[in-house]
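Readers of this paper often ask what the protein records in our data store actually look like. Nothing more is needed to write down the fold, since each code stands for a local backbone conformation. Below, we set out a record of this kind in full and without editing:
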Amino acid sequence: MIKRKIYRVLFLMACAICCHLLVQAQAPVFAYVQNANGKAPGAAVATSKKDIVKKIYEDLLAARGDFRVQSPELTMNSGQQYVAWMDGENTTIGIEEKAFDICMQMGADSLNAIAALLSHEVVHYYEKHDWTRKFVKDNRDVGSSEAIESLDESVKQETQADYLGGFLALTAGYNVYGISARLLPILYKEYSLDEKLKGYPSLSDRIKMSQNASEQLKRLQMVFETAQYLSLLEDFETSAVYYRHILKDFPGREIYNNAGVNSALAALKLFSQKEMPYILPMEPDPNSRLYALKAGDQDRIQKRTNLLQDALKDLDHAAQLDPDYAPALLNKACCYTLLNAWDDAEYWVRKYKKCKGSDPSSAMVLEGILAAMQDDVETAKSTMQKAGNNALAKANLIVLGQDQLSPVKKQGTAEIETIDDIYLDDFLETLTVDMETKASSNTTCGAKKFPSSKILVHCSDNLSEYAVIQLCGAECNSSTQKGIKVGNTASEVEEKYGAPIHQLAWKGGFAWTYPHLSLLFEFDDSGKLRTWGCYRQSLN
């Protein structure tokens, strides 16, 4: 009898262990495909291939910028079961060598194709798309789990992964427009997959879904570009509106930071020279601020306080996503400086200085400003001098010496510029766009494509406020009235137009604007002209 009980216990224990192993073996993964006839991983993958994938993956994680949760571990194997996958239970994201090899056959789009696969899985992870599967697995004895399991969420989740994954890849520097629709048929063919796989939409439906996601992505990218260019044209408050629209779908740290910075810069425009004579390390250009305001005006003071509070909310979100995200910490310190909250400003400067990506000279500039605003001019000067060649330190030392910054001389007058034989004033008469998106109840942006250029349109309050920007494409042969075209150098532009009125770091290079000429020029980091544009803007 005792022996029987012992055997029974051992048998039950063995069954429990087997069930546990079975569950572990069938741990739910979000697989790009489920290849029933695929082979399991075998030979090791070459390090050179892993290095390529790792670089792309790290770019995507940095662009997502959400470090509140554990980042998934990247894995790569020689199997032919999933193409790519996300395993939430084991916190991994993977891609198969065969999928990598297929992507590498896509020529100039090889890395973009890998980014499309990985970003798709990254979105599955951060959007917690495995929640339903995990809940059902953990609650088999709960009646409601069956109802949840019966819900078909796959179409919505796959579309969202394509859409947000596409934006994630774009912000990381990978152009994935239309990649999935081209890649899917090749993957199905090379993996010998049927048109219809159990648990997945059909191949034709997946292609349609990816095309729909790509159309949604174009709209989100249009909003993003409109926000960027409005910031370049110093319409900071509206730029922040567009960034906050993006945050509804994509709550990334850079987007929160951009929204916060633009609100803070909008507030900064509401300070008189007496109230804020110094140039903060948040400002894109020392020459950008005008001082035509009176020191009083309670409505103006209240508005800028509100804008700074909005900025701090967005910057708080950015810092929560990544506590070591240096730009958000420095920008918070600048906001508290503008609010005359010295203790808070000094606290965030100290936090910023401890960040891996901080710039010691920027910290010195702000510490010098804080000293000056508390009437310690000698400390301010010595601190600024320690910042070395920092341009803002030099500008602030001029202010501390009681001298005004010399305005850049405006040379020439506006000329009739055309791109693709289009004159913007004529375009404004009809104002037709190919697509448009409403960012708020009274704010809309749109875009119009032409053979070698595009036009971005912002309007609000029934066109009482607007901005229209036309930009040359990479293959654009149109030149300015003074003969400048894509491919010219910064020195050639300056020779024709003089020193830029405003200049700032921009998209891996730098940008110059000439507001009196309604012209802008974008350069790569070598000083080669990447694109140029003309614009029209209402008076803000």
Q: What stands out?
A: Residues 9-27, 131-151 have pLDDT under 50 and may be disordered. The chain is about 50% helix and 15% strand. Residues 24-133+152-220 form one domain. The first strand starts at residue 30 and ends at 31.
